[in-house]
Amino acid sequence: MAVIKSALELALERTKNLQVDESLQKASEAKLEGRKAASRWLEEPESVDFKALAGAIPPEHRQTFLRAAFEVLSTQVQLPLNTGIDKAKLEAAGKAIIVLCGLSSRFGSEREAKLAQQQVQSLFQQILQFLGQYSEEMKRAEQAIRNQWAPKLKEKERQLAAQLGQNVRIDPMSDPEFAEFYRKNIDAMRKNYANALEEAKNQLAALCGFATNE
What we know:
Keywords: Coiled coil. The chain is mainly alpha-helical.
């Protein structure tokens, strides 16, 4: 025999669902505010007070706010597409991450938070050095690839010159064989650096209590 729920039971279930929905909405709002705050910081750091903004978020959603801000800032920490890095923007992101770390609910005391901030600052400096090293290594690798390919390219130019009866210059990147060789070597190098950088960013998140599994 089917159990017929009372009006009170049904009302309580609806209330429970409403409470869950409201909690999810508050969490979503906290995440959005965190992202907006981090974006503003990158444009105009002096206009953002993370401590005050976090204080305005309900305590149960404060960590969501901080994690969302951290995620936006950490996207600035990436391998440059060209050989240069935007050091000023990276340093601004690092400064904000240190502030966010100090506000994390992971720490039971101010002393613990300060220690974590020091560790984050040290790790971020290592990341900056790593990115600078990457830029230099990419320049050297590109030059080494061009030097290695130069004899083949000169031979192709010589053959074309003999056919056309005039001197010929070939842009290395317009040569499919060279382009494939270049891409394969540069992509492999970039992948190694990208993996190492991702690991360092995960360490940053873990130090602050912003890892996705926390």
